[in-house]
Amino acid sequence: MDTGQDTGPGGRRERAGGTASQEGPPGPAAHTAPEARSEGAQPSLPGQDAGPRPGRTSRYRRLVRAWRHPRLRTSKRVALGLVLLLLVPVLAAGVALRVNYAGDPADGTRTRNRDALWLGHAWVDGRKSDADLDALAERLRGTGIRDLYVHAGPLEHDGSLSATAYPSAGRLIAGVHERLPGVRVQAWLGDELATETPDGMRLQRAGTRDAVVRSAGRILDAGFDGVHFDLEPLHSGDAHYLALLDRLHALTRARHVRLSVASHQIDPLPGLHSAAGALSGHPKWWSQAYFGQVARRVDQIAVMSYDTAMPLQSLYGGYVAQQTALALEVTPKSTDLLMGLPFFHENKMGHSAYAETVAAAVRGTRLGLSRTDRAREHFGVALYVDFAATETDWTAYREDWLAKR
Q: DSSP letter at 45?
């Protein structure tokens, strides 16, 4: 079993080493190479026409005449229509997100002291010392963080979990309780599902679901204050996941601890997950109705509101504002709704470190809360992830989200 990594919120691999690769700023642009000469080409002599050769000019004229041919009028109109059909909705969506980012958040839309932080595997495998615990406690004092999701897996594809994956869990839990009274330590468990690849966990198998419940019970025996699940990619409407949550919640209620989950984003447009699934095989979003079904079965739900492919901070913030509003509309008042903040820095397909900032996410969260349910008490933010965070991230969280002292 590879205890060194697991799928983190958003499909990211959490490494037991507790480090994340940090991409530096892009280097200077490469100088443009001189245009290569055609083989056998002769330099132009004085007085010689250096313009296009007659043969090239003739081909160009033929192309122009062909494009202007009356028979192509219908085809050109169809092509133009298709371009507009694709371009106009994208532009309209961009304008809508930018408008969503406008205005000022309402007073009182700051921490309710129900925030959470994802922690790497190094906290439970013996690599972190008492000095590290002291530094963590100093970092978290005076913040709104009440829950720590500590990576204690991964689960095997059959749902089992090795007891050797978290040998220092007891020391961590006792240390946090001593230094930060009232802060809960939850075991973060996850795995890749076999929804889009041949390998992975198959929730449709009753035996696998049984094993996941047994694994949750055993890890709670280690003293954790709850269990946090992140199973990806989890497609909207998965009834087997709902059945698993019902059983897990019965277990956690009997133990008087918390059940929390990391969730996919919600369809920004109705039915978008179905369209994305049909076109790409990866239905990124959940329907709003399915999100509500999940939220009703847990004590906390943390939206992975990053990896959005937004190119600008204003668009990303507007998107987070929309996600916040959509989630608030269907999350029970008694369930903690947490919006994920990107405490990591990568530049890849689907994620721009320039656009997806903590400041933009917090502003979007506050705007969505202001417009939808500004008095909601069971609400917060979740910070992903401790080992990739920078001082800039922590400063933005403190200055933009924490209440004025």
A: P
